[in-house]
Amino acid sequence: MAHEVTLIPGDGTGPELAEATRRVLEATGVEFEWDVQQAGADVMEQFGGNPLPEPTLDSVRRTGVALKGPITTPVGTGFRSVNVSLRQDLDLFAAVRPARSLPGVPTRHDGVDLVVVRENTEDLYQGIEFERGSEEARALRARLRDLGGFEVREDAGITLKPISVSGTHRIVRFAFEYARANRRTKVTVGHKAGVMRYSDGLFLETARADARGYPDVAWEEIQVDHLSARLVRRPSDFDVLLLPNLYGDILSDLCAGLVGGLGLIPGANIGWEYAVFEPVHGSAPDIAGRGIANPIAMILSGAMLLRHVGERGAAARVEAAVDAVLLEGTVRTGDLRGGASTTQMADAIASAMRSS
Ligand code: NAD
């Protein structure tokens, strides 16, 4: 039976990458029924000003699983990120972003094999914001003065950082269950609990208590600034990184940099009911429309999707074909110092799969 999957091509490089990925996934022989849906600033007008149209959300609620290209968030326009909204509306509370050294991609460190597990719905990304100079910001400043004598400057914009026990429990348990299921031996939590006692502090204490329920998985706590320094020096010290939302976002790009760049790193957003697979990178507007973006990050996101829908063999074949093409080294996109197009790279991966 064909797997029904929502396909959200996105914008910028998204549509080119989505097409390339679809071709590779279909070359596995697994059957798909794609429900193509739109989101982003480009389709807002068509949907009454909504960049995340209801039919798109309804489709994911129906199919349970989506493959998504990146979507641009215009900066400083008051436009709320579609990516963040999608994760919140579908309660996709866990982002999983594996970073491993790839054959034929020389980097400073060999043998990197780690996974960022990022809380995906709370923290500074929850979207509770007060614009500088607004009536709401003025009222909040007055309330903060009354409540705790906190003085916030009149010309400040404000973003709140809520982190809850319930939101933390589920991501911590997810990280440990993920570690067990994938034969990983250590979970390292990154935090700044010394400074943010009631948000990061709560995350750390909750995680520490839950970690006791997993004596078979090693546990490590580290301040996120120190973690950054250690990651760039000795990434092989780490296995699963458990991080609140903002740190997880930043450090997953750092981990992408460790293994050869954003064009290579896949991602999954997982909740109890739905899962959306997308590369870690953004819409790459600087190279959009030129057919030169590296499709590997999105193709490997597709491999994660295959595994999620129970097609383990096909997932492994896609990953092996990516490795084979990288190792062989003649077909490479510009980010890997080659001259191949997105389509050529995808075709090379599809044909490596067929001949394996
Ligand atoms: P970006 O990830 O789009 O690009 C950063 C750099 O990496 C650029 O030089 C780009 O050319 C390069 N790059 C990214 N993907 C590549 C690929 N597949 N192949 C080759 N090179 C690649 O980050 P940005 O420029 O900060 O963000 C652009 C837009 O994307 C912003 O609007 C941002 O909000 C949005 N964004 C979306 C998502 C998402 O959809 N999940 C994630 C991150 C950023």
Would you write up a description of this structure?
The protein is α/β, with parallel strands linked by helices and 356 residues long. It has helices at residues 14-27, 54-63, 82-89, 135-148, 165-181, 200-211, 224-233, 245-258, 296-308, 312-328, 342-354, and strands at 3-8, 32-36, 65-68, 94-100, 113-119, 129-130, 158-159, 186-191, 218-223, 240-243, 268-270, 275-277. The strands form two sheets. The protein has a ten-stranded mixed beta sheet with strand order 2-1-3-12-11-4-5-10-8-9, sandwiched between helices. A two-stranded antiparallel ribbon has the order 6-7. Helix 5 (165-181) packs across helix 6 (200-211), helix 7 (224-233) packs parallel to helix 8 (245-258) and helix 9 (296-308) packs antiparallel against helix 10 (312-328). It is globular, with a radius of gyration of 21 Å.
Q: Beta-strand level of the residues, as a percent range?
A: 15-25%
Regions with little confidence, pLDDT below 50 for 5+ residues: none
* Number of strand elements: 12
What is the general shape?
Answer: globular
Strand adjacency order, main sheet? 2-1-3-12-11-4-5-10-8-9
Cα gyration radius (Å): 21 Å
